[in-house]
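Sequence only, no structure available. Ideas?
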Amino acid sequence: MPRTVAVVGGGLAGLSAAHRLRRTLGAEARIVLIEQTAQLGGKGRTVELAGAPYDIGAEAFLARRPEVLRLADELGIADEVVAPSGASATIRAGGRTSPLPGGTFMGVPSSAESVAPVLSEQGLATVRAEQDLPPVPWSAADVSLGLLLRERMGDEVVDRLVDPLLGGVYAGSADGLGLRAVAPALASALDAGAGSVTEAARASVSPAQGQGPKAPVFGAFRGGYRRLADELVRQARPEVRCGCPVRSLVRRELGWRLEIGSAPAPDTLETDAVVLAVPPPSARKLLTGVAPVAAEAFAEVDLASMVVLGLALPPETTLPDSSGVLIARGETRADGTRLTAKAFTFSSRKWPHLRGAGGEVLVRGSVGRAGEESVLRLGDSELLDAVIGDLADLTGVRARPVETVVARWGGGLPQYGVGHGEKVAEIERCVSGIPGLAVAGAALHGVGVPACLATGEAAAADITGYLLGSGRDAVGP
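Reply:
I predicted one. Tokens follow.
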């Protein structure tokens, strides 16, 4: 009898798991893909903006990691991967807009000179003096990235450099993020004996930075992440059940029983194995009766929210000659009012293929980071007005959009706090001891697309190993 596997969660991690399960279990396997929302893809969401496919969740992937490019090649869509233009980013900090400094590791300077345009004279003096401080008191324990940097390099490094960069990735604050999960290369350098943060940053910075032509750091899909999601579904050939919450997960003698669908008449699904590729709150709920220790660890993962706004500006609009601008917390407009946006991506500058069907110029605005939840309660029209005003103040671009789109990601970004690695190790230790169960998703080993795909593939490998190695009978339909 064919094996039956339920993949709970239709984001990119779940789709990756379903695809790999199909490849390894074969055409006869029954793969049921269950997604609570109305559409698949999760944060890999693509919409139409002025007639162009536009990613309104994840915007790009790290091309230096192999997972996306390898998967695209396997799916036959490698020719649809595009590289950015090479335009450089800028940063708004200390009341001025400057080129984003090179010679840093996630904003942590490898020298004072590398960040001179962004810091004040006092801030630069603090960075210069860091190497002369007593060696970093270091142990195997995790620490707050922000607090370590404030103690060693001063507040300006955190507020003007590190926070704006991490705000775009995690929608969080460096003070609330753990060094080992967020900046593992920096932690490894300190583990290896670096006596200062400056020395650790110098060891972590790519030696190729600033040395002539190099491979693109980021990539995207010409048709948006929708193209990747659609191809994963097409080749995985699962039974897709969208708009279908999973209400409970029960371990049975010969597999699993899932209660799915809405009250008052939920359905049941009997399976041989289950992959959970869902956000932490859903994982906690479903694992409480199955793996309570793992459920508690998921409950300890905080979440942050953000809003992405897509703006289609008239074709004659001229954007600044950069890929976009990061905005430090507390920066203000010329009239003294605080900027609402945390970043702008000048999409039509960054990605040469991205223009509206009528030549419209596309811009992405991002709002929302830890401690600024109140701004997310604004309505769509209020947020759009605020972001359009910010864009005008920062760039001089005063054209009104001809079309807009707003995507709200409530609780969409896991926060990798101090000790996050230990939480994940506990989750994986508990789950690995339960035959026929695996977990995947952004809460584990990275919030980027490559990391999410990797967790899906790893979960599928665990399930395949169990099913093909157990020698037991499959459950009935």
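The chain has a mean pLDDT of 95.
Hope that gets you unstuck.
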